[in-house]
Amino acid sequence: MRAIATQAEALSDLDTVIAGRRSVRRFLPDPVPEAIIANMVRAASRAPSAHNRQPWRFHVVQDAPLKARLASAMGDKLQADRTKDGDDMAAIRQDVARSSARIIGAPVVVATCLTLEDMDAYPDDRRSHAEFLMAVQSTAMAAQILLLKAQSEGLGACWMCAPLFCAETVKNALSLPNSWQPQGLILLGWPAEPGRLRDRKPLAEIVTGIDVT
Fold first, then answer.
1. Contacts of 105 (CB under 8 A, 6+ apart)
2. What is the count of structural domains for the chain?
3. What is the pLDDT along the chain (213 residues), one digit of tens a residue?
4. Among 108, 121, 144, 134, which residue's Cα sits nearest to residue 50?
């Protein structure tokens, strides 16, 4: 009976963690112990993956000058792209400043990447694309576990998918291996403010096959 009770408690704790997760963008300056970061990555590595190839890769950045270099490089790319779009320069500068401040202000930045090195290779585009998407899905599931583990540790976290628009920029700024494809940045730290609760679509809009009323 105790085993059943323990399992129920664990499930209840998981529900609490899931329900409590928010995107936090402002952090206290206090460092995050590396042991906690390592435990988070360890948990993320338990995610399911296509063929069990575990294509995720994580590069942890705590060094302030390196974070500043990353933010500057990404900001330059963002400004160049939006300038080509003909956007208002004041709005561009505001967007760049906001993005840079979030990266620089996070005590920890985890560059979340994928690699196709161990994935299957196919001679045709259709299956090659499917294999790539499987690596993307696998990496995203690992990132989600990392975010939930951060919540369980009392940390604030925010997922930034901006690297998808400037993968080479991120790779060069962080000197990542050529085979690593940046997918996102996870900003981590002790929260300076609670994240905002955002509305979720009703279940009836997102699921079919069961009665959710």
1. 26, 27, 189
2. 1
3. 455 556 556 556 889 999 999 999 999 999 999 999 999 999 999 999 999 999 999 999 999 999 999 999 999 999 999 999 999 999 999 999 999 999 999 999 999 999 999 999 999 999 999 999 999 999 999 999 999 999 999 999 999 999 999 999 999 999 999 999 999 999 999 999 888 888 999 999 999 999 998
4. 134
Range of the domain at 132: 22-62+107-192
- CATH number for the domain that contains residue 52: 3.40.109.10
**Cβ-Cβ contacts under 8 Å for 163 (sequence gap 6 or more):** 74, 111, 170, 182, 183, 184, 185
Q: Is residue 129 part of a domain?
A: yes
Which 8-state DSSP code applies to residue 142?
H
CA distances from residue 101 to 96, 104, 159 in whole angstroms, order as listed = 8, 5, 15
Rounded to whole angstroms, the Cα distance separating 144 from 210 reads: 26
